[in-house]
Amino acid sequence: MYIIDTNIHAAYLLQNFENDELTKKYLELYNTITLSERIVPDFILGEFETFIIKVAPSRYRLNSKDTKKLKQLAFDYIHKLTHDCVISAPEIHTVQRARDIYFENVNTHYIGFIDCLILAEAEKNKYTIFTKDARMSNIAKNLQLACLDPQNANN
Amino acid sequence: MYKAVNISENTYKKLHKIATQSHTPKARIIESLVKEYCMTMNKREKIKLEKFNKEMGAKVKALKFSKKIKVNTDNIDADFAVLADTDYIM
After folding, report:
1. B32: closest CA of chain A, how far (Å)
2. pLDDT for A92-147, tens place per residue?
3. Is A138 left (phi over 0), alpha (psi -120 to 50) or beta?
């Protein structure tokens, strides 16, 4: 089972506009993960929705017509994710573990709280983390959590 | 290592009948059934994935903007900084 980070969902939706080879490898791998193996936590859905609906149009200065097209695509994708993939929500202990990871790293290798929730959720449920975020991957390795890395495609 | 499971009386009777007729231990029948069930599920999952990739992939590839943009999703946390304070004011 793979816990999918927001950056993978964003890269998937915006693949027409991102041309680096590594991202293509991430997406090739993403396309092979069956839907019942894709874990979609509620907090990732929230972050992804904010990114696509609020952040991306502003960051890339999209006009209202292009923003509308992107929003419609996001609605279709969110609809499919929430119907076909595995939705999850963290338990209180997982949030407390995320808090510990957050404060252990906040002054040395800062990562956001949502990333800490991914790490804690993966740790609790033995999920493999699928992210493009190098900082999170490094902390995951320190915590001895599995990460799906397209550069080691035999994982 | 073997584990015990509870099944209904009716299911047990059917399992017993299969085992008797096929001269096969019940455990082996259950193992075969589970294996078969997994294969069917995997086939179903592959079909669902192919459908998802085809339908959603077509929509994603059809997305075109009126101007050329170059996206980088390596560090989207930083992109959240573009949100102005007013974006969260009701």
Report:
1. 23
2. 999 999 999 999 998 888 899 999 999 999 999 999 999 999 999 999 999 999 99
3. alpha
Report the sign of the C-alpha dihedral through residues B42, B44, B49, B54, in that order. positive
- B63 to A34: CB separation less than 8 angstroms, yes or no: no
Q: Tell me what ipTM this predicted complex has.
A: 0.89
Token reading at B73: 């999703």
Minimal CA separation from A57 to chain B, in Å = 10
Q: What angle do CA B76, A56, A68 make, to 5 degrees?
A: 155
SS3 state of residue A38 = strand
Q: B81 to chain A nearest CA, in Å?
A: 8
Among A17, A55, A69, select the one facing B69 at the smallest CB separation: A17
Nearest to B60 among A6, A13, A55 (CB): A13
The structure tokens listed for A4 are: 């999918």
Kindly list the strands in the beta sheet with A38-41, ordered across the sheet, starting from the edge strand earlier in the chain. A86-88, A38-41, A2-4, A128-130
CB contact under 8 Å between A31 and B82, yes or no, is no
Q: Which residue of B has its CA nearest to A31?
A: B53
pLDDT tens digit sequence for B6-56: 999 999 999 999 999 999 999 999 999 999 999 999 999 999 999 999 999
